Amino acid sequence: LGVWILKDIILYPWLWRAYAYPDTDPLSELVGMEATAMETLDPEGFVRVHGELWKARLAPTERRGSDGRRPALRRGERATVVGMRGNTLLVEPKLPD
After folding, report:
1. C-alpha separations of 39 from 19, 28, 33, 35 in Å
2. Which domains are present in the chain?
3. Which of 44, 60, 66, 77 is 20 to 30 A from 89 (CA-CA)?
């Protein structure tokens, strides 16, 4: 029993990092990244971010097209991840340069 406790005391400084929680949420790192629409988002669909497929939804916006409707994101178009709601990414279409 003493050897077991001694082993734990010696190894603790190296192992505690494996059990510590990260300072940031790994999913929050997706915000600001570029996404590519895999299908038309009007307002929901799927996008690809860094090779991973994600469910996405167009973020609420005041921008409207000439017909007064919010612009949809067409397949192949690029967007920017602006947030998350649960496991769904909120995206905004990239404006043409």
Report:
1. 39, 24, 18, 12
2. 24-93 (2.40.50.140)
3. 66
